[in-house]
Amino acid sequence: MSTSAARMLERVVDTARYPLSEPEGADWKSVISRTRRALETDGCSVLPNFLRSSLNDALRLECAKIAPHAHYDVETVNAYNIAVDSALPEDHPGRIAIERGNAFVARDRIPEDFIIQQLYSSELFKRFVADCFELPRLHELADPLSGLVLNVVNPGMEHPWHFDTNEFTVSLLTQEAQAGGVFEYCPNIRSAQAENFDDVRDVLDGRGGRLIRRLTLRPGDLQLFKGRYSLHRVSSVQGETARHSAIFAYSERPGVIGSVARTKQLFGRVLPEHLAAEGRAVRVDQLLD
To answer: Which CATH number goes with the domain that contains 195?
Structure first.
């Protein structure tokens, strides 16, 4: 690890709690072990105060500065991010329409010197996350827009129930909502082998309370989550303060770029890289979305 990389980690991460600068050390292994257990049992692990608390104000101000660059497009969607007029059986949960009102700031709108950019590109951070998910290596997305994004949920809006395309998700809360904006999820409600449509439909219809868990996240908390198999949402934000969270998108393979349709939906634009990569997507399973 270079001296500059070590200094960046020491400045940004609470290395007393999370010793990223000492890979394979006893404390590193202890954190990895705890995180893996939580992921195995709950599909989710929260590392509280991952960032130094002294940086919380700087983190919030940086992200608030770029939040106006978010692409807003309130639209009718479903939990599977497929066309709402898809030919599906009458009782299929994909026929349940919901309104998506959250927005995203694309990576090319996030300055290189921002805390979240430095952390996203850190080789040791990527190694740490890969270790937590029991993967040999992680790659930054080659996608110039969706590799790192800021998710913005304004008052009165929510990020509705959905599944992720990636098997795993890494996020960092940068600004807490005044009220609402609670992360809710249904751990392992489906698997790579089974969609479990009945339980998904119960949650979407409001009858699946027994399946839902809720997390209270604070600025600086790092969340590791298996979002492909766990239905999840951010509940409606209330009050006067938006909820902001950075989403770090990695892949087990290099060169991953989002589809033209999905990219345009999220960011309102596509780049030549998306057009060139269209039709070459690789899937990890045969699930619906």
So the answer is: 2.60.120.620
